[in-house]
Structures are given as C-alpha cells and as structure tokens.
Amino acid sequence: MRFRPAMVLLLPLVFLASPASHAAESPYKGQEKRPIKALSGKEVEDLLAGNGMGLAKAAELNRYPGPLHVLESASRLGLTETQRAETRRLFDAMKREAVPLGREIVERERELDARFASQEIDEASLAAALAEIGRLTGALRLVHLKAHLRMREILTPHQIALYGRARGYESSGGAGGHSGH
Questions:
Q1: Where do the domains of the chain lie?
Q2: Taking the model in full, what pTM does it have?
Q3: Closest by Cα among 92, 99, 88, 94 to 45
C-alpha cells in the first residue's frame, strides 16, 4: 500500500481518536458528582425506603418467599384473609426495622464520603467507619432474611411452589433442587 502525503499527515489523528486513547477513562466517570460517591441515587432511595435490594436472594432463590412479593401475588397464591393479614403484619414489621437501618447506612456512607472529601481520614477511622457500615448492612440483611424465614410459616407448601413458578424460578421440584416445606 502506498501512502499519500495527506494520509501520512492524518495517521497520527487516527491514533488519537482511537478507543485505546480513552482506555484510562474510568467506569466511574460522572459518579464524582453524586452526593454520596459510593451510593447511586437509586441505592439511597432503596435504603431510605427499607427495600430489599437483593439482600435476601439466598432465601428468595431457595424457596423462602418474600412478603412483598407474596402480597403482590396474593390472588395467584390463593391466600386466605388470615394469610393476607399475617403477611401484611410481617411486611410492615420488616419495614419498621429496615427503614431506620437504611437511614443509618446512608448517614454513615455520607460521613465516610465527607471524611475522604475533606482529606481528614486515617486508617483507624476508616476501619471503624467500615466496621459500622458492615454491622448495619448485616443487620439490614438479617431483617430481610428473617421476613423470608417467617413467610414460610404463613404459606402452605403448595403456595410456596406456586410462588416459585409465579416468580419464574422453577417449573417443578423447586429452585436449586429443593422440594417440600
């Protein structure tokens, strides 16, 4: 291939515009504008609302239904009025515990972000902050997982199987090969 003088002059521009020149661009680009860098707006919203955020997947995907989704599927599951009332009480109790924990996690993350932003952080204060955030996150996960445990006390084995199928987890026999109550 013969290079023409114009091509030789344009060659460096091709390399400058290539994707390789952008390799250093961070996948975090734009997140530096978040009020709390480590949490998206949706994550903050979910924490403040006491939402599950996938914290109970170990239960959900192993035939331990969640109260919110049971309430959403009440007709399909054939819940009795008693089961609906018990599920509603369980859901409300879960929210009462989860919302303050979520609020506390958001506040601790806000404080951690502020410590980094002000450059007033050291290894000891970092370790303490992360230990507290971890403790709170564990407590929040416990709240959600306990609700899934209790949900199995309210539903029949048949309703649990219906729930799994309604959620798309199983066609028969149960998620992960488990069966029964």
A1: 40-176
A2: 0.80
A3: 99
